[in-house]
Amino acid sequence: MNINENAKQEFNFFVALIPLVLMIAAMGTTVVWLGQDPHIPLIFGTASAAVVAMIHGYKWDDIEKMMFKGIRLALPAIVIIMLVGLIIGSWIGGGIVATMIYYGLALISPALFLVTIVLLCAIVSLSIGSSWSTMATVGVAGMGIGLSMEIPAAMIAGAVISGSYFGDKMSPMSDTTNLAAGLTNTDLFVHIKHMFYTTVPGLVIALIAFFILGRQFGGSGATSGEVTSMMEALKENFIISPWLLLVPLAMILGIVIFKMSAIPALIVGIVLGFLCHLFVQGGDLGAAVGALQSGYVIETDNQMINDLFNNGGLQGMMFTVSMTVVAMTFAGILEYSGMLKSIMAQIIKVAKGTFGMVGSTIVAAFTTNATCSEQYISVVVPSRMFLRTYIEKNLHSKNLSRSLEDGGTLTSVFIPWNTCGVYIYGVLGVAAWEYAPFAILNFTVPVIALILAATGIGIEKITDEEKDSFIRKYYSDDTDEEAIDPV
User: Fold this and answer.
1) Torsion of CA 206, 207, 209, 214, to 10 degrees
2) Per the domain annotation, does 226 fall within a domain?
3) For the segment 138-172, what is each residue's pLDDT rounded down to a tens digit?
4) What is the torsional sign of CA 159, 163, 168, 173?
5) Domain assignment of residue 330, yes or no
6) pLDDT value at residue 69
7) What percentage of the chain exceeds 90 in pLDDT?
8) Domain total in the chain
9) Which domain range does residue 292 map to?
10) Backbone phi, psi, residue 485, to 5°
11) What is the torsional sign of CA 367, 368, 372, 375?
12) Among residues 283, 276, 280, which one has the least CA distance to residue 250?
């Protein structure tokens, strides 16, 4: 039996909005004004939702069950996020990430700088799953090189952001990618494959645009000192070999040829990276295990190397894990008390057909970015708001997971007070309103998503049997759980 069916009466729309509005207000105050993390506002939102549910007639024991059911929905994503921390630590320690960056840096050409920096940031972000780390390292280096060519800072920042977010969005090691897949009950690599429809064309458009923009700077003289310094530092601290590229290739082949799912594929990558750390880089067993637990540790004279490679490990993912758990307690109460159902009923009146659903998802994700100031929340909250409705309209869950990334992950950079906009300004020194016209991938992909939704291209439907199976699996209480009834 579905929990929502047990409620004596449905929530009034405005009453159902109270916890969401309070959480948004707390999020804005805490993240934007106080400069703190989003966890406490989410806890406040959970408490607000619990109070509203209790006033509506639910017992505390029932509310606990709602929170636990919400957390349980996120467990697959949490497991994968923890494995991602392990694989980042092992790949850095094994020299795999260093090898990718080294050969990427070798591609830099003054005449094609903007295109090259997009591709380089995409490669690095794909390899480590983090747009922030990429922008803080390769992006900073790119700003210095580009400015020496007299290229406008906003244009360079747009290229860095476009490449970094392409890799972040498409990497199986990205936390937002895992969140979008996990919270919609979509296989990780099915989700990534489905994003090809919107993200790859977005990258192609960005590359063409930056090729045209960059040709006017082809004759500028640039110093390659930053690039040379970084490449030398990489060779001094790691064994660089093209053979190490076989590790990510092995993981890709395992996925494509042997149809491995996310967890086995990540485990293969972890083991190979761990072995490379021991037998290629010559690290001792304690250091290799430490890289898995707490992340790789390195101290060099090159600050960019230090910033990029002191990364990874299980502990490095605990921020995302804890935030996911807290967010899902909030989402669990909203969903299983019936508040979310009341909110969705009003949205569905506007969202007609596939275009309406995709458009509403993108708008909701962008609005969450603007109001909650945090890209993680723009994935978490709309995922629970829209999932069942997508399924009931015979739309595969991967359509939702893709829309969450198109409208949430990518648009976070356009909000100056969002954590992403604030971070980019601090790292690259360019404000959101300055680089926004040049963050071409980030605003192109949502437009492509809407075009595909309008035409039906790249939209996958499910049968009635698949719909019923999905609802039974994810929206039916286990037989050993007590029904949740209001007083």
Assistant:
1) 130
2) yes
3) 787 678 677 767 789 999 999 999 999 998 899 88
4) negative
5) no
6) 87
7) 37
8) 1
9) 78-317
10) -120, 145
11) negative
12) 276
